[in-house]
Amino acid sequence: MVQKYSHNTIGTGICTPEFIFHVDGDILVELEMPRRGCDGNLKGIASLIKGMKIDDIIERCQGITCGPRPSSCPGQIAEGLKRMKEARARGEF
After folding, report:
1. CATH class as words, domain 2-89
2. pLDDT tens for residues 45-90?
3. pLDDT in tens, 22-37
């Protein structure tokens, strides 16, 4: 069963204010960006990680920065997926 989880990125220094993850078990089915930042890059990232295991996405994307910013779109995707996993562990998702 596909579930949606929203990750707010306002205040993180990246252009995209929100990511919405569509997940089925431990697989990312779709990444939605209702308000885009770098349109082509985000479409490319979404296409590349579609169908991947959540833990693999986190491993590959965590810690990536964007210029002088402390995070990036891939970094915030990893952070959002980590928060989703934590919410699941608490029974909130």
Report:
1. alpha beta
2. 999 999 999 999 999 999 999 989 889 999 999 999 999 999 999 9
3. 999 999 999 998 877 7
* Helices 73-89 and 54-61: angle between axes, nearest 10 degrees: 140
Q: What is the largest CA-CA distance in the chain?
A: 39
CA distance 51 to 28: 5
8 Å CB contact between 77 and 52: no
Check if the beta carbon of residue 78 is closer than 8 Å to that of residue 61: yes
**Domain coordinates in residue numbering, the chain:** 2-89
Query: pTM for this one?
Result: 0.93
